[in-house]
Design brief:
GO terms for molecular function: 15-oxoprostaglandin 13-reductase [NAD(P)+] activity; 2-alkenal reductase [NAD(P)H] activity. The protein is of the alpha/beta class. Helix content is about 25%, strand content about 25%. Strand 8, helix 3 and strand 9 form a beta-alpha-beta unit. Helix 2 packs across helix 3.
């Protein structure tokens, strides 16, 4: 008769997770194509001590991904980006199983992490507010809006602000914060539905830049006295037209130039320097991370505005990880009103 000590011990079954990721098979030439993306599947081991296994819940698609694709991604590399993820296995006490984090894991369904660069969701996050807003109004787009308005433009009560791509993730927050601060806000967007949305948000004036006969006339009609501040998201030749409408000592915050991101050849001219000289304008480019030390306090302010109903957040949600490339390309074509996110 066999005694217990000779019985074979049951091996602990290892749970292997199949992780999917979207890679950039080749650098984009002009507008991204479906064939520029490839889906990769790999098995991930269990976390080691200090590690956690993350499962994506919401993923972000943003214009900067197109801009940074040449410099930050090698061919065959995973597409960059933020996600809200759930901790599904943990050997790191700072991140218990079931908790949610913001992670720069890129376009992946599952990620092994040692905890570096993971940001836990604000502890005061309300149950009735979708966690996807961490990728939008209460995340990088919201921070970008606040820092552009407060740190770069120094927007004052009673001033007039123009924002383009105004129905996008950043622009829609910019306009609403400017209204909170007691300013006149003019927004430019690319469809009548978006213009209607801007009016809903409380923009004083809004127009569809694709259907106005003359951008110059539309700007003048919206604010005959000109503009104190311009929050620039689009770039290209339209911005030159805006500069002509700036007031003396006007300020311009350059946040993005989405109209140029898919150009194979760089656009040239017209050049703004004489206008800037005679109007004594101040133009500054910025990236939100310059004020990282203020992020925690700023996110709490944004969350408070959402809870008070002062900041509305519309999202354009695409369902399914398999649709990441389509969601990305759609966002670059302006299909989204508000923040574009993918729900896994």
């Amino acid at each position: 008769r066999m005694t217990g000590q000779y019985l074979p011990t049951a091996k602990k079954r290892r749970i292997m997770v199949k992780a999917k990721s979207w890679v950039m098979t080749k650098h984009f030439d002009g507008f991204p194509k479906k064939s520029d993306f490839g889906l990769k599947v790999e098995e991930l081991p269990e976390p080691k001590d200090g590690e956690v296994l993350l499962e994506a819940v919401f993923l972000s698609v943003d214009p900067y991904m197109r801009l940074f694709s040449k410099t930050h991604i090698k061919e065959g590399g995973v597409m960059i980006g933020e996600q809200v993820a759930k901790v599904i296995q943990s050997k790191n006490p700072a991140f218990p199983v079931g908790s949610h984090v913001v992670s720069n894991s890129g376009w992946r369904t599952h990620t092994l992490s040692d905890g570096t660069g993971l940001t836990p969701i604000l502890p005061e996050w309300p149950k009735d507010v979708s966690l996807s807003l961490v990728l939008g109004a209460i995340g990088i787009p919201g921070l970008t809006a606040v820092y552009g308005i407060e740190e770069v433009l120094g927007l004052q009560k009673g001033e007039t602000l123009l924002v383009n791509a105004a129905a996008g993730a950043v622009g829609s927050v910019v306009g609403q914060i400017a209204k909170i601060k007691g300013c006149k806000v003019v927004g430019s967007a690319g469809s009548d539905a978006k213009v209607a949305y801007l009016k809903e948000l409380g923009f004083d004036e809004a127009f569809n830049y694709k259907t106005v006969g003359s951008l110059e006339e539309a700007l003048r009609k919206a604010s005959p006295e000109g503009y104190d501040c311009f929050f620039e998201n689009v770039g290209g030749s339209s911005s030159y037209v805006v500069l002509q409408q700036m007031k003396k000592f006007g300020r311009i915050a350059v946040c993005g130039t989405i109209s140029t991101y898919n150009d194979s050849e760089p656009q040239t001219g017209p050049y703004p320097y004489s206008t800037m000289l005679f109007k004594e304008l101040k133009m500054e480019g910025f990236v939100y991370s310059r004020w990282q030390h203020k992020d925690h306090e700023t996110l709490k302010r944004l969350l408070a505005w959402v809870k008070e109903g002062k900041l509305q957040c519309r999202e354009h949600v695409t369902k399914g990880f398999e649709n990441m490339p389509a969601a990305f390309m759609g966002m670059l074509q302006g299909e989204n009103t508000g923040k574009a996110v993918v729900a896994v």
